Amino acid sequence: MATSNDLLIKQRSAIEFLAAEGCSAANINARMKRVYGEMCISDCAVRKWVRIFKGEDPRETILRDRKRSGRLLSALDTAHREKVDCMTRANRRVKQ
Asked: The pTM is what?
């Protein structure tokens, strides 16, 4: 089964293709809901991507999200896990 990120990229590709053909955002959204059902992105997101794709050259469009500045959402590497584990073993009252 595809991950949610893979599914999102597939949907963006479909939006790009249909927008290049000249389909309206409402038409694209209706067609995508028939195919993807509950996993379809929202109408607002479809409209946003149609605006983006109509303003760019299809050969230069990047479908993946660009890197953003700021704090990472999680730290799942082994170094951080070990550090947190040591802290909690030293003092059980430490909250994570």
From this structure: 0.57
